[in-house]
Write a structure and sequence with these properties.
Layout lengths: L26 E4 L5 H9 L4 E2 L1 H7 L11 H7 L26 E4 L6 H12 L30 E4 L5 E2 L7 E2 L1 H15 L9 E2 L5 H21 L12 E6 L2 H10 L7 E7 L18 E3 L2 H11 L9
Parallel strand pairs: 1-2, 1-3, 3-4, 4-7, 8-9, 9-10
Antiparallel strand pairs: 5-6
Helix pairs in contact: 2-3
């Protein structure tokens, strides 16, 4: 079973509890290399996925400083379903005539950081998600949030809030949370500090992500039990989960704060082989059930706690 931070987005391509599906709506997917994140979104069921490469390739003037990336964007780009609005073409945008984005998702770290930031800001300031427009409600002091994000602009959702992550470099590198922090700084400058940037956060440490993971674990556990000819009973619950992670701010905080609706006990195991490399992270929420050197030691510790005996490296 493989679950990534953006896996819960798949539910948005399905109608659920009366909530309208985004399955056929035009969505902007940001981040990742080439078309990888577009292909993931399409695998989730979204049928109208647009990327920054599509937009730039259709109109490079939208961000004139991406010319060094032109060949990269051309390789990844697909034709836009509708043209981008321009006041030279029409007095006002209209549905079905010009490109309108219904929702925005940051699946992964942006490759062309500045282009992606510009497009996201354009849409957050737009009239009803029509790229190339600006809302007349922006900066209205008499409206909530000073009029910003009050005019049907697309919701912005991040799959992962991690500011830092462990890469091949010996020091942690900026992650998707770095892009969010940059957007927040730009938003404060553009709105003169008068408006909050309203976003939806996915990934760890959000409760929704841990609940989604627990549901998947329960379903996987039931499949394993059935393979062993053991039919799961209503009182046959999953008692414990071991969360292994290298980031105290996301992995450990998420596991420690999560209140399982099924009364499952979550144990947090912090490894020193990634973002964290110290002795003990500060703050109660950041403190794990245990700290070990690497993933092997984490699995060994969990198995020993479950009475399976300690395993030794081969």
């Amino acid at each position: 079973m493989f679950v990534q931070s953006h896996t819960p987005f798949a539910s948005l391509a399905q109608e659920s509890n009366g909530q309208a599906s985004l399955k056929n709506e035009p969505i902007l997917v940001v981040g990742g290399e080439g078309n990888k994140c577009r292909e993931v979104a399409e695998a989730y069921g979204f049928t109208n996925v647009i990327t920054p490469s599509d937009i730039y390739n259709a109109n490079p003037a939208i961000w004139p400083f991406s010319s060094p990336f032109a060949a990269y964007h051309a390789t990844a780009a697909r034709s836009l379903p509708l043209p981008i609005y321009s006041p030279l073409l029409s007095d006002s945008p209209s549905e079905g005539k010009y490109l309108r984005i219904s929702s925005m998702f940051v699946y992964n770290d942006p490759r062309d950081f500045a282009l992606d930031a510009q497009l996201v800001l354009d849409l957050l300031l737009s009239h009803q998600g029509f790229l190339g427009t600006q809302s007349s409600l922006n900066a209205r002091q008499d409206l909530p949030n000073c009029g910003y994000q009050q005019d049907g602009q697309p919701q912005l959702t991040f799959a992962n809030p991690d500011l830092l992550w462990a890469a091949k470099w010996h020091l942690p590198r900026l992650g998707s949370g770095g892009f969010k922090a940059a957007l927040e700084g730009l938003w404060q400058a553009i709105t003169a500090g008068k408006a909050e940037l309203k976003v939806t956060m996915g990934g760890k440490p959000s409760t929704q992500t841990f609940n989604f993971a627990e549901e998947r674990l329960m379903a996987h556990r039931e499949q394993l039990l059935r393979r062993r000819k053991h039919e799961p009973q209503s009182d046959d619950k999953m008692e414990r989960v071991y969360m292994v992670g290298d980031n105290p701010a996301s992995d450990i905080v998420g596991a420690n704060r999560f209140q399982s609706p099924r009364s499952t006990k979550w144990n947090s195991i912090l490894v020193r082989s990634g973002v964290f490399a110290g002795e003990q992270p500060p703050g109660e929420d950041f403190r794990p059930t245990t700290i070990v050197d690497d993933v092997f030691d984490a699995v060994s510790w969990a198995l020993e706690k479950e009475g399976q005996g300690k395993i030794e490296p081969q």
